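General statements about sequence and structure are easier to judge against a single worked case. When preparing material for the folding task, we compiled for one chain both its residues and its backbone structure tokens. The amino acid sequence and the backbone structure tokens for this protein are reproduced below:
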Amino acid sequence: MPKIQKKQKADVAIPTGSMGDIVFLLLIFFMVTTVFVEYRGIAGIEIPRAEMTERLEKKRGIAHMWISDDGKIMIDDLPVVMGDIAGLIYPKRVDEPRLIVSIIADVRAPYGIVSDAMRELREADALQVNFSTLYAFSR
């Protein structure tokens, strides 16, 4: 009776020779298709001038709020109405406890709207507020 020989098992190794090429192509793909967020805000806002300013260097944890001269409000490029500001800012403040709200208001914006927006920010417990201005050289 002849002996039955076992079948040889197939090699289970995964070829990794082209792995570097695939990673390089994926890297190029993600670099080309990535879009960086740039806030546009409301067009035509004229920022008030200030005698002395302090530049806000920290880039993370900032919510930009634009207030136009006709009372339109946008937060991070999303149009909002006055009663929705606290509901929009509060979750951001919970995610980032050191959230700074940068108010960019037109020089002709009614102060009542700015005051109401600040009241909404207090309700959202966002107490760190920055008013964006242009530095006026008065020499």
The helical segments are 19-33, 85-95, 111-123. The chain has a mean pLDDT of 81. The CA atoms of residues 21 and 27 lie 10 Å apart. The first strand starts at residue 49 and ends at 50.
